[in-house]
Design brief:
The structure holds two protein chains of two kinds. Chain A is of the alpha/beta class. Chain A has four domains: 7-94 and 162-252, 3-Layer(aba) Sandwich (Rossmann fold); 273-511, Rossmann fold, CATH 3.40.50.300; 548-582 and 719-912, no CATH class; 593-697, 3-Layer(aba) Sandwich (D-Maltodextrin-Binding Protein, domain 2), CATH 3.40.190.10. Chain A has 34 helices and 24 strands. Chain A has a six-stranded mixed sheet with strand order 5-6-7-3-8-9, with helices on both faces. Chain A has a six-stranded mixed sheet with strand order 15-16-17-12-18-19, sandwiched between helices. The longest helix of chain A has 32 residues, at 720-751. By secondary structure, chain B is α/β, with parallel strands linked by helices. In chain B, helix 3 links the parallel strand 1 and strand 2 (79-80). The longest helix of chain B has 32 residues, at 173-204. Chain B is elongated, with a radius of gyration of 27 Å. Chains A and B meet through helix 11, helix 12, helix 13, helix 22 and helix 24 of A and helix 1, helix 2, helix 4, strand 4 and helix 6 of B. Strand 23 of chain A pairs parallel with strand 5 of chain B.
Chain lengths: 918, 375
């Protein structure tokens, strides 16, 4: 592999657009292998898109991308080389599984690349040792600090010894110490595997200084390529940051100048913010430990510290978002309380994560907030325009916020935070992920606000050059404030050359933790055969279905489900509850129907007639009706479902043989109930007639000349429970498996872990089938619970073959989870997936599958849906085995139909699921 | 006043967000049109298109007449099968009813030997078995009576019973199913729209953002309730007018404004329930499960699918505390029986009362759960 001298990546005329936005415009590049190549440039110039295309995570729209000796447009080539490429997407740990521990995450990626148990263990151990993560191997990824997440992400990327490592802004939002450790780690790995090429996008110019080759990008095009020295020489600048600004076209660079922070004019009055012994605990974890500080009016106060050290929590306590466990904070001499609306008007807050409405445009967001802060109506339009102008948002004013590049979004967030002209600004890492030019622009505004507007600014940051601009800074670590002073004083205190060094010195002193610098030997390759040889030795073709890879997904999914006991409990317990409710609640045995009588005869004969109703178990009598109006009213009210009227002179007419007529009104609002009532009514009437015949003539009612023998088959007592319980099993095996399945996949899409499908060797088929397995297992356990309930609780004997029923259940659950998969493959948000599954299952399963009435009686679309829905066939089998004692032979048609669903649904999801992002 | 304006603004924001969500919008459209139509035309609770088969071992003039007596729309054309096909046909659910006419049936009848007809009923087809038996018996009786008209009976009964169906004279199912489907959709949609919207805002951090502004959680909640409720109310009104009245030709006798007013009260409850569930769930999968656990029983047991009179006493009592029961009941009263406010006001009151309790419950949990975010 080391003989690889040809370029490892070649990009020719690549263009990429999202809707109308052009992300890349005819980019051509040639990147050598075995080198460290940096891509630098402002946000939204197409860096991430380019990396995604090279990694094979995005679909190429036009142009050619050649990587590792093949065309990335060809899916065969992608499959072939993806074991040799590692891709770490943007965002802190966005492709990690937050519920899984560090070692479980690593093991998952190891399995995806087909590593055996021993190899995997050795590799994981080595990686953990070298990154210093080994003490935390059993900690869930979600509980790691940002720096640790990124190290873990790197470990996951490195587990298969890639030849090309692609890192998309890996150190954005990571503290200096972790950042330094991160790059040390990369250096050591490169020292061990010199052939490995590294392609990095970064916003830190100091990092870029160390790369072999830089690609400066702007507006979807390449500005310059060359070594850092070459680029600086070309621009004639001292630092890379200046060189980069100089390289920008006029339009962008023109207004840029070196920032000067004018001295602060002292103001009178009490401090703007005082914190005394602020403490916040989450359970037994102390996030902030007795933090105290004072911030004067108009001061810019910086907050520095590693990720997860309590900066955000402190800020939330100041804004009143979180109540403090102990200690107090005062804003302008007033205690900060959680519910104080007046204080909030004086404060502008910008949270770490972007939290404006992505579905509104820039102008709409500003307008909404102006109104929510109750700016005078006539000032709103002016203020919004002023901010749009001041923050350079004019080009984006009517664009949807979700389509904006990160830097622009941060500018918008700041604009929103100051729309009501607050006296205090609390900014939580506002410049994370923002390029240098935009950052300077951002700071210009902050300085103006502070020096000219007298606004107090409390800001947290990871950028040292930003920290030096603050009047004073606090260093925070593990919930405690280590030091608070002017930047210059802090540097002198530690005798350091720069603030960064001073900060690292403070951190190392506080944590007593030396980075694992000198144990390079632990990185000794575990049986470090190059990946190609390993594949050859394994004899596996990367395109073939591979159970190792596939099971990796199953195991991971089951672990995640186990970590979420609430979900599992709901899934099983929910089934039990629904089974109980439906088993007892859904019934067609209608009893206790209310009726009332308008007896206008009140003779012994009429009373005899009515005795039949009073004695019937189906009817419950209500007080007699007064007149026709009363009858109307009671029916209308729904007080009675049946009203009988006996005409005046009924008794007399009967005795004289004049055939009196009794009138009955049945509430027809619910057709099924109305029909049933009519049946009961006629039954009572006939009984009366035959009793009458027997009493009067001493003989039976003259009947038909033929006998009619109705036989209620399968359910001699004609009781609902025998039919409904087996049907309920069929119904209940649809909803929960389908919804769990659909959300399981869409969740990965929403959280970004789906990238792992795009860039690892796992195929779509493996992904689909094996994400399904744990949910099939859940479905089958629900099935067993329900059968047990049917037999032992509801007393519905299973007359037919349990084996046949179970086999059908297995096919059926595979089909219903498959249904969830199909829905998940075309929905993007969890809400839509939930809604889609609910609609896609309730109506067909409840109405068209034979629960309410036989499928053979359905018409039109309903009949088609019924036949094409798995519930119909499983219901036939379930009812058949339970009540009709049927076996495979009798039910072969239903089995055959049911067996068609799993493959059909899998193929459908396979076609709908995309193997790459667009 | 400021509060009202906040609620109004936030609600407008909700509407903007919904407008951008094409998938959600098309699903709403789908449920209130296609699925209402499909449910109304596809399912009928009365005997309709029943699958019947006849084993004719007589092959006489009378048996032919019997075979021809079963007509659409109640019955599909009877299948003529042999005796040994009965079990298979009934086992697979191909036939719900099988009539067996024995050999020499006509001859025996004329000779006064009182032959027997056998009627097999698949008693697992709960909704059809009972009504079907009555219809079939009636038809058989009529044909045979006509055949031997010298011995006609029926005119000699001493008392006549004249039964009519009030409000729906032909007990047409689509009248019932269409409106019930709308009701089910209302419950389902309002819970999903508000609940899922809240969870999404929580996951994206936008809720936190609202909480640092001079807004109370109550205002945020009321805004969600009114905006989502309004969307569903409009969808429901349009569906009732365009799909139910115009397309399906269902006559609704009662006052539609009154029905929509009641729907608005119910929506108040249902949206509050959605928010409440969202505060219970920590993630969307959990919300999904909770949703199923709550919505299915509400839809299945409120009298919109099966008669509530059949449920065990305890369940009926419990269900009285669920507003969907009252919603189904007053919807039927208003739309079919033309009941006015003087009749349905107790149910309106109940729905409002239970809705308010839920709303306060949800509001209490709301503040608690959103302030303790992931960090």
């Amino acid at each position: 592999m080391s003989e690889e001298v040809r370029p490892s990546v070649r990009v020719e005329g690549v263009s990429h657009r999202y809707g109308k936005t052009v992300a890349l415009d005819g980019v051509a590049l040639e990147l050598p292998g075995g080198r460290m190549v940096g891509i630098v440039g402002p946000d939204g110039v197409g860096k991430s898109t380019l990396l995604g295309l090279v990694a094979g995570a995005r679909k190429i729209q036009s142009g050619r991308v050649m990587a590792l000796g093949g065309d990335m447009a060809s899916s065969a080539h992608r499959r072939l080389v993806c074991p040799r490429i590692a891709y770490m997407p943007q965002g802190l740990g966005s492709n990690l599984y937050m519920d899984l521990t560090i070692s479980e995450n690593l093991a998952f990626f190891g399995r995806l690349f087909g590593q055996g148990r021993r190899e995997r263990r050795e590799r994981i151990e080595a990686l953990l040792r070298s990154t210093g993560l080994d003490p935390f191997a059993e900690r869930p990824a979600g509980k790691l600090s940002g720096g640790m997440k990124q190290k873990l992400g790197l470990c996951c990327a490195l587990i298969h010894d890639p030849d090309l490592l692609i890192l998309d802004e890996p150190t954005t939002g990571v503290d200096p110490l972790s950042r330094r450790q991160f790059w040390d780690l990369i250096e050591r790995i490169r020292a061990r595997r010199p052939a490995m090429g590294v392609l990095v996008a970064t916003a830190y110019m100091d990092e870029a200084e160390k790369f072999d080759l830089l690609v400066a990008m702007n507006d979807g095009a390449v500005l310059a390529t060359g070594s850092p020295a070459e680029i600086k020489a070309r621009a004639g600048c001292e630092s890379l940051e200046e060189a980069f600004v100089a390289l920008l076209p006029e339009r962008h660079g023109r207004e840029h100048r070196t920032l000067e922070v004018p001295p602060r004019t002292m103001r009178d009055g009490p401090p703007a913010i005082i914190a005394e012994g602020l403490t916040r605990r989450f359970g037994d974890f102390t996030a902030v430990d007795r933090a105290s500080f004072e911030i004067a009016r108009g001061e810019i106060f910086g907050f520095l510290g590693s990720n997860g050290c309590g900066k955000t929590t402190t800020m939330k306590m100041l804004t009143g978002l979180l109540p403090a466990s102990e200690g107090t904070a005062w804003l302008f001499g007033e205690e900060a309380k959680a519910h104080d609306l007046e204080t909030r008007k004086k404060v502008g807050y910008m949270s770490q994560a972007f939290s404006l409405y992505a579905e509104l445009t820039v102008r709409q967001n500003l307008d909404l907030h102006a109104r929510l802060f109750h700016l005078p109506r006539r000032r709103i339009a002016g203020r919004v325009d002023e901010l749009i102008d001041r923050f350079g948002l004019a080009d984006y004013a009517d664009e949807l916020t979700e389509k904006l590049p990160l830097g622009v979004r941060q500018r918008l967030s700041l604009a929103v935070a100051i729309i009501h002209e607050p006296e205090i600004l609390i900014l939580d890492e506002p410049t994370s992920g923002v390029d240098p030019v935009a950052r300077d622009g951002f700071w210009e505004i902050l300085i103006d606000l502070s020096r000219n507007g007298g606004v107090t600014i409390f800001i947290s940051t990871h950028f040292m050059n930003e920290a030096t601009r603050c009047d004073r800074i606090s260093l925070m670590h593990a919930g405690r404030v280590l030091a608070s002073d002017t930047p210059a004083a802090l540097i002198t205190e530690k005798g350091a050359g720069s603030l960064e060094e001073a900060f690292i010195a403070y951190l190392e002193e506080a944590s007593g933790d030396k980075p694992a610098q000198d144990d390079t030997r632990t990185l000794a390759p575990p049986n470090a055969g190059p990946s190609k040889e390993r594949d050859a030795a394994g004899g596996r073709h990367p395109l073939a279905f591979d159970w190792h890879r596939a099971l990796a997904y199953s195991m991971r999914e089951s672990m995640e489900i186990r970590r979420d006991p609430i979900r599992l409990a709901f899934a099983l317990l929910g089934t039990v509850i629904l089974m109980l409710v439906f088993g007892y609640g859904i019934t067609f045995d209608v009893e206790d129907l209310t009726y009332a009588v308008l007896d206008r005869d009140a003779s012994p004969e009429s009373r005899t007639y009515l005795e039949g109703f009073a004695g019937s178990r189906y009817f419950v009598e209500r007080p007699p009706l007064a007149d026709h109006a009363d009858l109307d009213r009671q029916l209308r009210n729904g007080d009675v479902t049946l009203a009988l009227e006996i005409p005046p002179g009924f008794g007399k007419d009967l005795l004289r043989g004049r055939r009196p007529e009794i009138a009955a009104w049945i509430d027809g609002a619910m057709p099924f109930r109305a029909e049933t009532i009519r049946g009961y009514l006629e039954g009572v009437h006939l009984r009366y007639l035959s009793d009458l015949a027997f009493e009067t003539y001493g003989e039976e009612l003259p009947g038909l000349p033929v006998g009619l023998e109705p036989r209620y088959r399968y359910n001699q007592d004609f009781k609902s429970v025998f039919a409904m319980v087996p049907s309920n099993i069929a119904i209940l095996l649809v909803f929960i498996p389908a919804i769990l399945m659909a959300l399981g996949v869409v969740r990965e899409k929403e959280l970004g872990q789906i990238t792992n499908l795009y860039v690892t060797p796992v195929t779509r088929l493996e992904f689909l089938l094996c994400k399904q397995l744990p949910y099939i297992a859940i479905g089958m356990s629900s099935y067993l619970v329900m059968v047990a309930m049917a037999v032992f609780l509801f007393g519905v004997p299973l007359k037919g073959s349990f084996f046949a029923l179970s086999l059908a259940a297995l096919l059926y659950v595979t089909a219903t989870t498959g249904l969830g998969l199909v829905i998940s493959s075309f929905t993007r948000t969890q809400a839509a997936a939930l809604f889609g599954t609910a609609i896609g299952t309730t109506l067909p399963a409840i109405q068209f599958s034979g629960l309410m009435q036989p499928v053979s009686s359905l018409e039109g679309a309903a009949a088609l849906v019924g036949q094409a829905y798995p519930t119909t066939h499983f219901m036939t089998i379930s009812v058949g085995t339970f009540t009709k004692a049927l076996d495979f032979g009798d039910l072969s048609a239903s089995f055959l139909a049911l067996a068609l669903f799993p493959p059909a649904l899998t193929i459908a999801s396979l076609l709908l699921l995309k193997g790459q992002e667009r | 006043m400021r509060s009202l304006s906040n609620i109004f603004r936030l609600g407008i924001k909700e509407l903007y967000s919904l407008r951008r969500d094409a998938v959600m919008l098309s699903l709403i459209l789908f449920t209130f049109t296609v699925s209402v139509y499909a449910a109304a035309t596809g399912i009928s609770h009365d005997l309709n298109n029943s699958a019947i088969a006849i084993v004719d071992e007589d092959r006489s003039q009378l048996s032919l007449r019997l075979r021809e007596a079963f007509l659409p729309p109640y019955f599909r054309e009877p299948a003529l099968i042999s005796f040994r096909d009965i079990d298979a046909g009934m086992d697979t659910g191909a036939y719900t009813f099988v009539i067996v006419i024995p050999g020499d049936f006509e001859a025996d009848l004329l000779a006064g030997r009182r032959p027997s007809l056998q009627l097999n009923i698949d008693a697992t087809a709960m909704m059809q078995a009972g009504t079907g038996e009555r219809h079939i018996t009636g038809i058989l009786t009529q044909v045979i009576t006509e055949f031997v008209d010298e011995r006609a009976v029926g005119a000699t009964y001493p008392v006549d019973l004249k039964a009519r169906y009030a409000f729906n004279p032909n007990i047409t199912s689509s009248w019932f199913t269409s409106v019930m489907e709308i009701i089910n959709n209302i419950t389902m949609l309002s819970i999903i729209l508000t609940g899922a919207a809240l969870i999404r805002e929580r996951e994206h951090g936008t809720i936190e953002h609202l909480l640092v502004m001079p807004l109370t959680p109550l205002e945020i909640m009321v805004a969600k309730v009114w905006a989502n409720g309004l969307v569903i109310l409009i969808a429901c009104g349009l569906s009732l007018w365009l799909v139910v009245e115009i397309l399906l030709q269902v006559p609704t006798v009662g006052s539609k404004p009154l029905f929509l007013a009641g729907t608005a009260l119910y929506l108040f409850f249902a949206t509050a329930l959605g928010i409440f569930l969202a505060t219970l769930a920590r993630s969307m999968p959990q919300f999904g499960l909770l949703f199923i656990l709550v919505v299915l029983p509400m839809n299945m047991l409120s009298g919109g699918e099966t008669p509530i009179e059949g449920q065990p006493e305890i369940l009926q009592t419990i269900m009285q505390a669920v507003p969907s029961v009252h919603f189904v009941s007053f919807a039927q009263a208003i739309l079919y029986r033309g009941a006015g406010l003087e009749i349905v006001w107790p149910q309106f009151l109940l729905v409002t009362a239970i809705g308010s309790v839920f709303f306060l419950f949800a509001a209490a949990r709301f503040r608690k759960t959103i302030s303790v975010t992931k960090s």
